[in-house]
Amino acid sequence: MSTGFIYLASQSPRRAQLLAQIGVRHELLLASADEDAESLEAVLPGESPTAYVQRVTALKLDAAVARRERRALPPAPILCADTTVAIGRTILGKPEDGPDAVRMLQLLSGRTHRVMTAIALQHGGRRQAALNVSHVRFAALAAPQLAAYVASGEPLGKAGAYAIQGRAATFIEHISGSHSGIMGLPMFETAELLRQAGFET
Q1: Any idea which residues carry the catalytic annotation?
Q2: What is the SS3 assignment for 71-136?
Q3: Which pLDDT score is estimated for 201?
């Protein structure tokens, strides 16, 4: 592969940090103000969490491919990802506000939930995708813990109202799966897709 870099179509600083961690040079390919990026994340009636996260990631990649072409940017692989948190078939997206974050964290308290991160990579006419599923168990959370965490502002903008790399790490009793996947970009699957596209990590 001759480009030497990839486009990352994500606003998440954690995804950028994880790519840098494995030495992948990347440039951000972010939505412009006139793109309705939020509408891509709407859940369809009866949609399962797995189907949801894979569909949203594919839509994000479609939008990113069109964005690169519209801006006449040099060709390079484009990487997209989406993360969702689920208990059973209930999808916990990003909380609307503090009370919504409390509601989500109360659902997670003392229970095991799934964190699913779907990734998709397009290079030329070829598209590849992968899904990482991890299981996370929270300890039982006391009301003062929840209130202090929500007051910190960290839950806002995070799927399931928490960030594993932040203060919520103290809530987690057990993880089965990928720490980087829970952060938002599973390193094993990402490296595999990049290698399949001819990009050495």
Answers
A1: 82
A2: CCCCCCCEEEEEEEEEECCEEECCCCCHHHHHHHHHHHCCCEEEEEEEEEEEECCEEEEEEEEEEE
A3: 62
* Average pLDDT score over residue span 184-189: 97
Strand partners of residue 44: none
Q: Would you say 78 and 65 are in contact if contact means Cβ atoms under 8 Å apart? A: yes
Three-state DSSP at 145 gives helix
Segment 103-122, tens digit of pLDDT:
999 999 999 999 999 999 99
Residue 168 lies in a domain: yes
Q: What's the CA gap between 187 and 167, in Å, rounded? A: 22
Runs of H (alpha helix) within 37-170: 49-70, 98-108, 143-151
Q: Establish if 201 belongs to a structural domain.
A: no
Give residue 62's domain range: 6-196
Residue 1: inside a domain: no
Quote the number of domains for the chain. 1
Predicted TM-score (pTM) of this structure: 0.92
- Return the exposure string of 18-43: e unless at least 16 CB atoms fall within 10 Å of the residue's CB, then b: bbeeeebebeebebeeeeeeeebbee
Q: What is the pLDDT of residues 39-57, one digit of tens each?
A: 788 899 999 999 999 999 9
